[in-house]
Amino acid sequence: KNITVAILSTIAKVAVIFLVVVFIYKVAGTAYDFGYAIFADEPMSSGTGREVTVSITEGKTAKDIGEILESKGLVEDATIFWLQNLLSSHKDELKPGMYTLNTSMTPTEIMEIMSAEDETEEEE
Fold it and tell me: Which sign does the torsion angle of CA 58, 62, 67, 71 carry?
């Protein structure tokens, strides 16, 4: 009877250790993917892409702008765009206006256009 209890106890410990390792692996993979997306600065499409006109009104935050860009297919994730903006030299510099952007542009290129001095329509 003691041997059976010892074997079951060992199996339970191994199972718990296995689940903890799998959990850590999944969390680490998700964290890596999120971090990679922030710093990779990749466009939505390669090649020539497609042009999209975006209207940004006064008072929009970087998070709001990210949501607009995500809905237009210019960035993959609004939260990632917001974080990229926070970490960029364009923080608090995005301006309202009409912009002609392209799906082949990186988030940094989009931020450069949206923070340029001329607030009228910009082209790539």
Answer: positive
Cite the DSSP H helix spans in the chain: 2-40, 62-71, 78-87, 107-114
Distances (CA, A) of 8 to 2, 4, 13, 14, 21: 10, 6, 9, 10, 20
For residues 81 and 94, the answer to whether their CB atoms sit within 8 Å is: no
For the stretch 59-99, pLDDT in tens is 999 999 999 999 999 999 999 999 999 999 999 899 999 99
CB 103 within 8 A of CB 76: no
Residue appearing with tokens 């680490």? 28
> Strands 51-56, 97-102: parallel, antiparallel or unpaired by DSSP?
antiparallel
The Cα 39–Cα 124 span in angstroms is 22
